[in-house]
Specification:
The structure holds 3 protein chains of 3 kinds. Chain A is 15% helix and 16% strand. Chain C is globular. Chain C starts with a strand and ends with a helix. The chains are: A alpha+beta, B mainly alpha, C alpha+beta. Chains in contact: A-B, A-C, B-C. The interface between B and C is medium-sized, with 31 and 31 residues.
Amino acid sequence: MGLGKLSFTALKGVFSKPATRRYPFEARPPIAKSRGRIHFDDGKCTYCSLCELKCPPDAIKVDRQGRVFAIDHLLCILCGACVEACQKGSLSMDAKHGEPWTEKQKLSWHTEAPPKPSGDAAPKA
Amino acid sequence: MNTTWLLTGLIALVAAPVLGGLLAGFDRILTARMQGRVGPPLFQPFYDVFKLFEKRGVSVSHFQNFYIVCFVLFTAFATGLFFAGQDLLLVVFALTAGGVFLVLGAFSPNSPYSTIGAERELLQMLAYEPMLLIAVMGLYLVAGTAIGPTPAAPAVLDTGKATTILACPPGDTNRLSASNQAASVSSAPVPASNTVASNSTVAAGCGATPCCQEAGLPACGTPASKTRAQADRNFKVATILHNARQGGMGWRMLLNLSGIFLGFLFILTIKLRKSPFDLSTSHHGHQEVVKGLTTEFSGKTLAWIEIGHWYENILLMGFVWLFFSGLHPAVAAALVAAVYFLEILVDNASARLKWQTMVKAAWIVTLVLGVSNLLFLFYFNR
Amino acid sequence: MGARTIIPFGPQHPVLPEPIHLDLVLEDEKVVEAIPSIGFIHRGLERLAEKKDIHEMAYVSERICGICSFTHGMGYCTAIEAVMKIDVPERGHYLRMIWSEMSRIHSHLLWAGLLADGFGFENLFMQSWRLRERILDLIEETTGGRVIFGSCKIGGSRRDIADDVMARLLKELASLEKDCHAITDTFMEDSTVAKRTRGVGVIAPDDAIALGAVGPMLRASGVASDSRSLGYALYPELSFAPIVEKDGDCWARTAVRVREIYQSFDLIRQCAAKMKPGPVDVKVSGNPSGEYWARLEQPRGEVIYYVKGNGTKNLERYRVRTPTFANVPPLVHMLKNIDLADVPVIVLTIDPCISCTER
């Protein structure tokens, strides 16, 4: 028993660097394996729709005929099932977290049928 | 001279909230650092208060805001009086009156959380008030009695003011101030060695025992000082400050008041609303009573409560200064800062206790440290 | 006796991390009676079993709770694996145990902070959560998530911990364990803390059993009941004994959890020492048919998962009995004839997880 058991820790705090940081101004570098955000590389995608099948919250929608890949990041639970399912390596997990959004939006990509490496990445609402 | 004191009081009225806000800012940064956080900017308390002033006021009962105005007025009045070198008893009672108005304000909206907060605040007052009075008595016993030349002007002028304008302190003060005036009048024909007229009684008294002037308190415990003691005792902040410095009390003052000082530190935790005794309300007393005392206040009113607390804190720091007033001002300032630091440390190293424990502990401390110190001063130090 | 006042405590009260409502009937500051009501955040997760297939359900199950998420996923998977008679590889089990013990440390530290806040010790609250951030960092490094691990699947584990990461993990855990002492000593030995927790909210062993208390709540009353002793995963391989305290008050419940933090550090070390390289999962095919009750030890106590499969890819019935649900009747029992000031402390010592309870 004793009084002020935490006073040493408190005093130490005065003379050492705080554990928190002023977040929006200084962000922590992302941890390597962190599941931050699904990254889509439209050059490699064959629109096989395996990812859509595996997605637990149905955040991914793939139009096989129209060759459109759409992902709703606000539905995505970042489980990484789509990354594991993707055979072409067009989906990957980005360790960096996405920017905050002020309104709901779905990102979608579309590439023309012949193998064209430079697709028009056109995010639309 | 008297205008100087008056001016200090007026300056204090303006400066206390600014200083109090800065103190709160320092407090928040230091607290944050103790908790391993970065903490808010220094001026955050001001930002908060300005923001509160911008907000729409919502009040449940009509009287609620009126009580808060009274709380702020009385607290500011107490602070002004204190820094104008006025009667310490009057300061304490004005402060208490302010506190009572705050409690009344909290009682008026009939909200359960607010009511419990108000009840707890009353219990807190019950706990700290005796020690506060003992502290005043102790300071008076040690330094309220004139030792060196008394600062004449504030004594005479301010007693006049205290008796005629305010007329609310208990009879004690009236009697004292009356005797003061009597003393100053009677002393007029006596050719005093000092240039200041009104302290001639002291001069005369000390003429009998010249050692008094130099030796300070302990040496004054002779029958010769009896007449002087009857005539020149008062509760004025100005007198205490003057005697402490001129009497060259130094550390001896703190030593003679050591029990009372420790007891005062104890109740200071209650007064500053710090853990372990932040029962009725605080910036983080949300766990039991949501916001307790201030639950039903918002907007401007809440801002005024905050400003009232700033006044209160500065006044309390001034009170702490009195204990160190025999020392060099720089040393005294450092010690006051150390006391505040200690309070923050205690705040960050203890859990909140219950009111039963608080009242018990505060009264035991008051009895053991305060009363025994007071008895010592009465019987061994006169 | 004073007039009776009813103080609404929750569902939104600063001390409550989650919404539970208590009507506290007060006489002055004495609580005479507490009437609980729940049902503010029911999300219908069990019903989702009819819409999501069994593999997706593992993710849903994990989202029952934000603090003990891993154990929820693990319990679900354990139940399904038992129905489908899947043998999880040894390394898969060890990984699961490491993560579930890490989540226990994280949960207990979080709870410690909340309790400190409950008795008005803000610094202790901040310090506990500061340490919790470090264990969260380790969880993020090994699983990629901070509170939702997403690492458990039917048939084993979805991720492996590489040897170099493991070595770093153990080193960091050792330093964390050392730093924990400053905090836990305060919980155990500080006089002001003891003043608020000792002798408060006492529940006798008989009452605790009769009212169905589970987990640290029950162990603090002197009943050695720890579901890990039942032998799910590979717990029989590890040496540990249920942590028991006698007093049955808030202090004893704190002591049980504090000691469990250190026990978990020890269990992680044991797991790391016993782990051998090998596969972490097996391939799962087919659908479950049959039913199973799985009992696991969560940070908050014993949790029960009931699954019933009918040979389709969706479960016919999925049911979870969470520890907080079991601990609410003892809570109501403890809330009688106490001071208002003790209410937050007592409510917090059952470690309420209302999201779990209502799912």
